Amino acid sequence: MKKYLLSATFFFCVFVSFAQTSDSAVIRKIYSEILVNGNAYEWLRQLSVNVGGRLSGSQEAEKAVQVTEIMMRNSGADSVWLQEVWVPHWVRGLKESGKIIDAKKKAQDVPICALGGSVATPAEGITATVIEVHNFDELMKLGKEKIQGKIVFYNHPFDETFITTFEAYGEAAEYRWSGPSEAARYGAIATICRSMTNAQDDFPHTGSMGYNDSLPKIPCAAISTNGADLLSRVLRADAGTQFFMKLNCEKLDSVLSHNVIGEIRGSEHPEEIIVVGGHLDSWDTGKGAHDDGAGVVQSIEILRTLKALGIKPKRTIRAVAFMNEENGNRGGRKYAEIADNKKEKHVAAIESDAGGFTPYGFGMEMPDEKRMLVKSWAPLFRPYLVWNFEDSHGGTDIGPLRDRMKVPLFGLEVDSQRYFDYHHAASDTFDKVNKRELHLGAAAMAAMAYLLSVHGL
Fold first, then answer.
1. How far is Cα 457 from Cα 450, in angstroms, rounded to an integer?
2. What's the predicted TM-score (pTM) here?
3. May I ask the CATH architecture of the domain 93-248?
4. Predicted local confidence at residue 15, as pLDDT
5. Which of 33, 62, 301, 325 is catalytic?
6. Is 248 helix (H, G, I), strand (E, B) or coil?
7. Sign (positive/negative) of CA torsion 266, 444, 442, 413?
8. What is the DSSP string of 112-140?
9. Which CATH number is 31-90+253-455's, of 3.40.630.10, 3.40.50.300, 3.90.1750.10, 3.40.50.1820?
10. Known catalytic residue: 272?
11. How confident is the model at residue 20 (pLDDT cuts 50, 70, 90)?
12. Does the pLDDT value for residue 3 go beyond 60?
């Protein structure tokens, strides 16, 4: 019996070794093809330069759908189609205006932008005394007596002690999302929020906020970090400092838009689907290069590369450019709803939505036994400096697949130190993306998609 067990173990180890050698050779071809012939960077130029900012419901978003459909077809996908989804339609309107007004009535312009979903100010704008707080505890202690009729200024900087900048963002973003309604609870007439970034610059960073429908809806804006520091200094010198803000935004009726989908059918198990994707929409202040044009073109690059190399995946690989991640995630929810209703079998979903920076790993949301299988592939990625398989985040667009169908999720992890310099700001432009870093991310995703297509999960 011992001899039999030893023989079985030997042959299993030989089989695993042979399989990994074969996989390693294919992955080497994938990396070489993308680094030498990859088209993701040029596709990103089309999205972020030729189309620009792509806020859901806008003409630019619809142009992006058309452009992305052409990219999918040019990738060589076996089939390409559009999936209807109704999306919110919030418009920024004319450029916002913000001014600090000191005790001598001297006004200093500072960069602000409306938060996504905000109501407008009156046509003449709002001028009121500013109350600075750093957190919700301070807001509550001040109470209605000191806040009524004033503008609340949330000056909550990123915590620089977090090594991963996404942790700092997660900790600070509650003041953007919930801040307006919490201030309205005590009678504030508007809010200003320090931009969600650790960069010191003059770019205000927008992003979604959410109103509590049981409280008044008040205008809310982001102020640049330089502007926030200036306002804080002026307030320390004069607690009676006022602020003028004028927002021209408006919420319109939902409009019909689309997810863009392309796939290569599996050669042995076509009914088993692996999703790779990013979100096609972006905020309107910038050009949506890192967030998330990068993820969209990396996903399409996977299809192009497999076709170029003549690799026939055993399972279907489907690239999805999701619409409306930024202010509703309706594209992700609609995709999961349709997949669930059609009883499609999804093996896994991979998302890139952390910018086109150097990749170093994959976050994984899945049961332990599946996580252990993926970790056994780690040696295949180490030659490409992809080493971290410990984190547990997938992605917003693919989250509904987990919630509705228990699909295992992967999130491409990249060096995020510069991401929030550009996130949701006018500085998120094509020139901020490095071609090699973008293509390395596409290659890492392609390698993972290939392994999933061969071995399942």
1. 12
2. 0.94
3. 3-Layer(bba) Sandwich (3.50)
4. 41
5. 325
6. coil
7. positive
8. EEEPBTPPPPPTT-EEEEEEEESSHHHHH
9. 3.40.630.10
10. no
11. low
12. no
